[in-house]
Write a structure and sequence with these properties.
Order of helices and strands: HHHHHHHHHEHEEHHE
Strand content: 5-15%
Shape: globular
Length: 327
């Protein structure tokens, strides 16, 4: 009788544990399904990662990563509703007075106004608030060093920087490259959002040189983009630049952090830095019939009969910035 009682208690205990474990497992599965199926996840990856990629290099991107935006907006908005309202307010009306990420605005400029439905924006914000999102490997150290101490968000605040003449040449050239990239990226994004990828090709064909030249005037420098596989033959790299491209390909392939190459020749400073591919680039520079559709390829070949700038995958060196300014 005593043995039977012990057996009954032990059986009850084991069944209880199994039910408890099963319940916990079910809860975790439900949570994972909820995260995977949340509509905001796909909307964020499709619409936001074009510029706010979690995989892009720290110095070669068009906008801060989404994790930086999340952290900054959480500083000001403790409730989910306030968080969603703040993000909706910014995306519907991005302007200098409305910004809270001052460093990012100084570095990348004001993001283009995007005609997303309110529901799309709030679903993305809802997902960002509730779930962990991907972040770049370099972000945590960057955030500790720059973001949380100033309380002004991601990126450098140019008003706190030294004057241009005392900034090291490599950093100065990189600033010129990144600000030009931000202008090109902003205008390209606006064109894609407004007219689609095919019309954006026409924008690149007609406007990219004009915008780059205007930034050359702004910075009093010669700013060029050159490649070993140029789309426009005017962007063909020379012998020296081809060696730098080769060097940067090795650096990126080894998952190392690229640094500006600086040359001082005849009182002229030459700065070089890699241009790497991201999801937005692959729409026009990717693998045909995979990341680049047939219509896009056909239009590329009409606009650029000698094009060589296709077949890329994510995070490959597509060329380099070549910046020249007076010493």
């Amino acid at each position: 009788m005593k043995n039977s009682l012990v057996l009954l208690v032990l059986t009850t205990f084991l069944v209880s544990c199994n039910l408890s474990n099963k319940k916990n497992t079910t809860d975790l599965v439900s949570q994972n399904i909820e995260e995977t199926d949340h509509p905001g996840k796909k909307l964020m990856e499709t619409n936001c990662y074009i510029c706010h990629s979690p995989t892009a290099d720290e110095n070669n991107r068009n906008a801060p990563p989404m994790i930086a935006i999340k952290k900054r907006y959480l500083m000001n908005n403790s409730t989910k509703e306030a968080f969603k309202a703040a993000m909706l307010n910014w995306i519907k009306n991005p302007n200098q007075d409305n910004a809270i990420m001052y460093g990012a605005v100084q570095r990348y400029g004001i993001m283009p106004g995007l005609a997303y439905p309110d529901e799309t924006i709030t679903q993305i914000a809802d997902y960002i608030y509730d779930f962990e999102i991907d972040q770049p490997e370099w972000f945590e150290s960057h955030y500790k060093q720059n973001g949380q101490n100033r309380g002004k968000g991601y990126g450098m605040n140019m008003q706190q920087k030294q004057s241009q003449t005392t900034v090291p040449y490599g950093e100065r050239g990189l600033k010129y490259a990144l600000s030009t990239q931000a202008v090109l990226g902003k205008n390209l994004t606006e064109s894609i959002q407004k007219d689609g990828v095919l019309e954006a090709l026409a924008f690149c064909n007609e406007q990219a040189y004009r915008l780059t030249d205007s930034m050359s005037v702004t910075h009093d420098a010669i700013i060029k983009r050159v490649s070993d596989k140029p789309r426009n033959q005017n962007n063909k790299a020379n012998t020296e630049e081809l060696e730098y491209i080769k060097t940067y390909k090795s650096v990126v392939k080894n998952n190392e952090q690229p640094k500006p190459i600086v040359k001082n020749i005849d009182n002229k400073i030459h700065v070089y830095y890699p241009i790497t591919t991201n999801a937005m680039c692959l729409q026009c520079h990717g693998i045909p019939n995979e990341t680049m559709d047939a219509k896009t390829l056909n239009k590329v070949l009409r606009l650029y009969p000698k094009d060589k700038a296709i077949g890329y995958t994510n995070n490959e060196v597509r060329g380099i910035w070549s910046i020249t300014f007076d010493k």
